[in-house]
Every structure is written in C-alpha cells, then in structure tokens.
Amino acid sequence: MGRLNFRLSEPSRLAASVEAALDGVEESLTLDDNRAAVLLVGNYDQNIAHLERRLNVLAHVNGNQVRLRGTRDAVNHARRVIENLYAAIRKGRTVGVGDVDGAIEETALQRALFPAKSEQPADANKTAQQGFGHVATRKCGPVKARNAAQDAYLRVLARHELTFAEGPAGTGKTWLAVGHAVQLLEAGHVERLILSRPAVEAGEKIGFLPGDMREKVDPYLRPIYDALYDFMEGRLVERALQTGVIEIAPLAFMRGRTLANALILLDEAQNASSMQMKMFLTRLGEGSRMIITGDPTQIDLPPGQVSGFAEAIALLKDVEGIGHVKFGHQHVVRHDLVRRIVQAYEERAADLPPQPRRG
User: Per DSSP, which regions of 24-126 are E strands?
Assistant: First the structure.
C-alpha cells in the first residue's frame, strides 16, 4: 500500500496532543484490507488528522498500521472510531470528515457519555447498543445520523405522523427529512411526496421572475431539489416530477387541498404566517405524514408579522401524535466553521435586550 506518514501542521494542536500523549498510553491497530486502510486515512490524511483534533490523540500511520497515543480514554475512543469507520468502508461506504464526526458521536453515545434529553427517545440504552439510526435509499444506501440530535430526529420521524424540527442552518433538518421521505416513497408507505416552502424573499427584492410556475418558484425551492438529487437518481426525480409522484409547490398553493397517502414537507417554515401555518397543518389527510422544519432565528417576514412556526410549536406541544426535535449550534454538521458562526450569532442574541416578538 505504500507508506502513509504525516505530521501535524498546527503548532497549538501539536502542543496539546503531545502534552496529552506524554502522560498517556500507546496502542497499535492493524488494518488487513490495504485499500480500505487508504480510504480510512483519507486524502492528505484528512480523516486521521481530524480524529486527532477532535479526540486530542497522536496518530501515526505507516502502511496498514495505525499507532495511537494519548490518554487511555482518548485512545480507546479513537480505536473504536477507527474500527467503526473501517467496517463501514469494507461494506462499500465512503467516509469523509463528517463521517469521522458522526463515528465519534456514535461511539461516545455507546459509552453512555450523552445525558438524557427530552427530545431523545426513552429507550436510550437500546439506542446506545444499536448505534445511530439511519435512512436507506436505493441510491445512497444507509445514511446514518451523525450526532445524538439527528438520531433522535430520525426516530421521532419514524414514530410520529407530524414532526416539527427547529434549529440553525447546517444541522441536517431538511436533508434528513427529504431522505426519510424518499425512503417512505420507495418502500411504498406513501404514494407521493409534496415538498413546499414559503416563497418569501430573504431580505432582497428580486422583482418578477420569468417563465412558467415551476421556473418562477424553483429559486425558492432549490435546496429541496438538491436534497432530492442526493437521494434519488436524476432521471427518476425528473420522471417523478413529470408524473406528479413528487410535487414541489409554494406554500400559498396548498390552500383548499386534502393530501392523502402522501409525505408532506414544509421547509423554511419560520417564514409562514400564522394563517398559512394553520392552513398547512389542516391539509393532512388519511395515510399521510407531515414534516415541518424551520430556523426561528432567520425570519424574513415583514416587521410586525408573527411567524406561524414558533406559534404552532408552542400551541401544539401537548397534542398526541406530534413530535418535536430542537437542534442547537453544537449539532451543525455542514462545516465546523458554520458551527462556530452559528454559535457566535446565538451568543450575541443572548446578550441583546429582548426584541418585539415576531415568532
């Protein structure tokens, strides 16, 4: 396989890792499948380097040998992460830095390091033994949750006919919801997907858009399209759109409809007015399921107009059959810098005086 040797490039990280390693233990792992070992290490050793940063260990790769050094707990944790990722690669999965984060969170849960939270399922011990939940589609195969909040989200989606998911950008609210929807469609649990967003401009005026109805609303619904193409082959998406198996429509066009045997997803729901939210919630028909996602910190409604998203969550919190999952900045999986950006905004918002209520 050749020699895969790397050195840490960040002095602060190096100093911290060396300090931990000096008083720690050393353990070696042998990866029998050379190809899987190369994929595990990642391009430019990015996966192993990320593991070092997250768990504060020193890792040295030489051929198919991985030598770990650090505190006993950190080395044990790193070994379990490597074993899980190696097993996933041998089953045909590809892994990146995000998968390293997911494996770290999952193995931490299995070690019972996560305290019980209200949004987590009651059978947390069973969850810890089985690992994080996943969505499985024909194109992607099983896609596992990357943290405890995503795991709780998938389990709430499976148990409830109506689910609210709130939290900042980059936590996987929409992406996992679309994956869950595609999974239900392919399994025959629903006959069609109805995907919707409020057509509200995000702080800028773009004027009248040319084209037919689909071309006019496409810019607002692009994130949903992107998620669909992640979970389905492009030709199947286009065929489903043409035949009505998948329908993408602005929220305003949902009035007066009864949606049976369908999965209905409302994204960016923080931009739905109170009346729009009531209208949307009452579209739920026989054999249907509904997912509503939004970020209450990014409301683009006109000043003084109440967001129906937060209002509905508060109003329906005790209604049987409705699930609710709340994500925080610590659950951002898009990019570590995004997590820090969201955290900075949340901390500033916490220091500001209360503003007039919009949602």
Answer: 25-30, 58-62, 65-70
Output the CA–CA distances (angstroms, integers) from residue 273 to 105, 163, 278, 304, in the order listed: 36, 18, 9, 11
Please give the backbone phi and psi of residue 248, each rounded to the nearest 5 degrees, phi first: -115, 120
Contacts of 333 (CB under 8 A, 6+ apart): 98, 101, 102, 146, 147, 150, 170, 171, 172
For 30-60, what is each residue's pLDDT tens digit? Answer: 888 888 888 888 888 888 888 888 888 898 8
Digit-coded pLDDT (tens) for 248-272: 888 888 888 888 899 999 999 999 9
Alpha carbons 29 and 85: distance in angstroms, whole number? 13
- Of 125, 175, 177, residue with least CA distance to 154: 177
- Token pair, residue 89, equals 């690669």
Minimum mean pLDDT range among 142-151, 184-193, 318-327: 142-151
Q: What residue has token string 């026989």? A: 286
